[in-house]
Backbone:
């Protein structure tokens, strides 16, 4: 698993193939939001939703690369030859998790700095929502990326397949973020955290069980 | 080392298309199987099944080393595979690809052994360069070094001399000779010269074994 993880990390640091595109996507998207909101007062609930819209589409533009890249370069067979499906799955999941966490930290920092009116009152609730949401996002995105990588229309299929699967997660993290902006305590946000933990466990387990069928011909 | 590779009643279908059926063979250490047939007969398919890259529709492949049944799913270092369509990682150097192969197989990386193999296949002056800068022949040579890093008991070669010059072809013959001393090899080819490298012929056009 760690072999797959470090391979992807080293490859990405060497080629910067996904990172540059993702950073530009985040900067561009936030700039457009900023310009479109200029002078307007937007409700904090809407701002919480917009935050997760940015996070969702950033993930959609980047997380599929872990598998699509291997298919496009023809290195899927090499991975088949060298390592087990579970090592590939968990290695890629770890890559996507690190990528999602990096992106989300970047997005959140820029969002807090640039977007007026988005004020977090309970940082513990906010950080926990972000962490659990990131894990659920990475988990779902990884198995969907593995499925989509074998399709012909990868680009459109990825967000189309991801949205219904991620909808419960997105609704929960938006609620969690709203609670964080309203100053809720960890106990008050407990329901959201239980949902996020359950989502992550269910999706990761189901993905692990399904991955063999997706990975093998 | 006692090596016994066995395939029993292999059948492979892709959707409605039958590639082959009722294919069985058995090979012991020191022997080389040549798989021949027209384009589309299923040579590469058979080799991929033996290498664990494809699952047969029916039948199984079993490998015994020193009397112990090997799990081809888990013991990836037991199979070496070379094919023109196998891709290594262009952004890494030759030696880095070798190291990657070791780590992904879950084995310790012996850099000295890797460098020795890279010298043997004629890449001594280029193994610190990214594979993306290699010619197709150099990539093929690297694949051989990659495949035999852990002296696998089974070596599977699809079109073994593909993209290779005369010197490269001689290297392949040397590798096959050494492979006979420690295990078995399967070669898929239509080249008359390469067919002579084997002891057992599986002609997928006629599905004979001799």
Residues:
């Amino acid at each position: 698993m760690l072999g797959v993880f470090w391979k992807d990390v080293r490859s990405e640091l060497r080629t910067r193939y996904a990172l540059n595109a993702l950073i530009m996507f985040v900067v561009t998207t936030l700039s457009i939001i900023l310009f479109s909101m200029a002078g307007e007062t937007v409700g904090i609930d809407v701002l919480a939703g917009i935050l997760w819209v940015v996070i969702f589409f950033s993930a959609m533009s980047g997380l599929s690369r872990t598998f699509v890249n291997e298919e496009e370069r023809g290195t899927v067979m090499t991975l088949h030859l060298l390592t087990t499906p579970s090592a590939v799955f968990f290695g890629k999941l770890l890559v996507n998790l690190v990528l999602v966490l990096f992106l989300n930290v970047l997005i959140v920092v820029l969002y807090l700095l640039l977007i007026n009116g988005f004020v977090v009152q309970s940082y513990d609730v906010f950080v926990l929502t972000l962490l659990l949401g990131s894990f659920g996002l990475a988990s779902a995105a990884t198995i969907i990326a593995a499925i989509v990588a074998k399709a012909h229309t990868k680009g459109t299929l990825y967000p189309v397949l991801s949205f219904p699967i991620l909808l419960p997660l997105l609704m929960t993290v938006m609620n969690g973020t709203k609670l964080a902006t309203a100053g809720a305590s960890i106990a008050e946000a407990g329901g959201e955290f239980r949902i996020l933990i359950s989502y992550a466990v269910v999706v990761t387990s189901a993905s692990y069980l399904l991955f063999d069928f997706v990975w093998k011909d | 080392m006692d090596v016994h590779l066995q395939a029993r009643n292999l059948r492979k279908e892709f959707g409605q298309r039958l590639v082959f059926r009722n294919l069985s063979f058995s090979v012991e250490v020191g022997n080389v199987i040549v798989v021949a047939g027209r384009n589309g007969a299923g040579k590469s398919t058979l080799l991929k099944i033996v290498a664990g890259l494809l699952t047969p529709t029916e039948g199984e492949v079993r490998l015994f080393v020193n009397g112990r049944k090997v799990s081809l799913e888990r013991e990836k270092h037991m199979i070496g595979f070379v094919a023109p369509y196998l891709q290594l990682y262009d952004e890494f150097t030759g030696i880095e690809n070798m190291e990657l192969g070791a780590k992904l197989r879950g084995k310790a990386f012996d850099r000295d052994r890797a460098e020795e193999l890279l010298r043997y296949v004629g890449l001594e002056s280029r193994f610190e360069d990214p594979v993306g800068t290699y010619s197709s022949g150099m990539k093929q040579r690297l694949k051989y070094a990659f495949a035999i890093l852990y002296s696998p008991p089974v070596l599977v070669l699809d079109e073994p001399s593909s993209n290779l010059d005369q010197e490269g072809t001689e290297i392949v013959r040397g590798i096959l000779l050494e492979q006979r001393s420690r295990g078995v090899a399967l070669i898929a080819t239509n080249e008359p010269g390469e067919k002579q490298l084997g002891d057992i012929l599986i002609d997928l056009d006629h599905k004979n074994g001799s």
